[in-house]
Specification:
The structure is a single chain. The protein has 8 helices and 11 strands. It is of the alpha/beta class. Strands 7-6-5-8-9-11-10 form a 7-stranded mixed β-sheet, sandwiched between helices. The relative contact order is 0.13. Bound molecules: S-adenosylmethionine.
Amino acid sequence: MNNTVSVVYLDQPERQSKALAERMNMPMCDLSTTDVEAYAFFLSYRDGCLKLLDRQTLKKGGLTVDIEPRPGEQHSYPAPKKDLLAQAVGKKTISIVDATTGWAQDSLALFRMGYQMTCIERSAIMAALIEDGFQRLAQKEWVRNRQLTPPSLLVGNAIELLGNLPEQPDCIYLDPMFPQKRKQSAATRKSMAILRDILGDDLDRQALFDAAMQAAGRRVVVKSPDYAEPLGGKPHESYQGKLLRYDVYLT
Ligand SMILES: C[S@@+](CC[C@H](N)C(=O)[O-])C[C@H]1O[C@@H](n2cnc3c(N)ncnc32)[C@H](O)[C@@H]1O
């Protein structure tokens, strides 16, 4: 599959787009002159944020790191620690490293619950989208009023980075891409489908688990689809959701 990514600009090459294209060593693409068929995905600054687009969403739409609370989530800070994710992370946990940040939805939910978050992402494309999301988060009134610092982002392979963290986190959270067994449901999954198209499965997830077990202070939490074998053998605890599971390994 052609999964080439380009930075797109609509009229004049904006400074912001140009800087991103240079930083990421990506071609710039002018919609009025470039043959867009040469690219499968695009990054574009629109509506005040950085968006990932495919050819269908090139003119309108696109995916962005959503910094708003999830549907049904309480809009208070800190949000209640009562869902399966919070139970898996554990009552004594203060600091968490999310070693597979992706669209940062789990990281952001944990941040809103009040955990100290450090994020790792190895895809430069996802890292650019996450950075943009965290910058927008820093501008939110509830974040500024409480003088909260948005999660920090480390860009690179967590298998290497976890061995060099400045402080040992209580918990390391892993949500690698597992091979897909069932068709994913519509809207919310579009973001994961596009991630899979660009990045493929995370084939080194076993090595990532081993690195996490070495680096975590108290526990490693692995989010898996319900059909997948536990990444580290029998977990100490497991929290079963509808289609997914959080396996907990104490270090
Ligand atoms: C399934 S997504 C994570 C989704 C995320 N939990 C969320 O809430 O949006 C997996 C992400 O982890 C990243 N990833 C996988 N293995 C990694 C590694 N060893 N180091 C850094 N990032 C990794 C992939 O690039 C991908 O963006």
